[in-house]
């Protein structure tokens, strides 16, 4: 129930409580319903009912003023440092943030002023539309981003990563074949110098008719952030080996392939940003290398 924040406001605040309240009320009714006629002779008095009502109102007023998180019951925050690459060049870098419950990132940064100040370099942190990010930027974590809500991204440094990695993930065409009405492209994925990879995700959009994954069986397509239907595949394996596979299309329309590699290595600036969040924020932090390819078969 704590992950119901993917529902839009205000439903994200109330739906989990309504579900849990209904379940608890039903179980309590089953367990103690037969005792109601016996206890009613003592409880069904105006003074007793008035006392219960006053206690309930006071408890609700007090609980609404308490801070909802602690180290034992933390706020879960996801931080992704993304490097958008083109071949071996860095095109863009940003810090992506998301949460998985109904309290938004604005709540987090309002209670983590040092992190907000660090992100905007002494200026006020903005939550305007230009800082919003959609689920397509979180494809490295697929399918978890379907639980995310209100994601934001802010500019980050680009050159720091070159101190640690010489080569970035890259997708290369090996050969292209045509037969009947089908076209097949053989590809090789190199993960570069990365050594702490957790997973790699491929988001393939276009007239895909077959592939070499999953016993040559295509899954049902997924639609991310209102975009066209895509086929998403998660890969795991040794990062020091190149991975070869093929894709097949039954149309001359181009295939678009988004490659997202999740690396557990963190540069110093990301570690510093993580340390600025309070202890009640449970930070899940990782680095993502993201690149996009278009193939005309």
UniProtKB/TrEMBL annotation:
Superkingdom of source: Eukaryota
Name assigned to this protein: Uncharacterized protein
Organism: Avena sativa
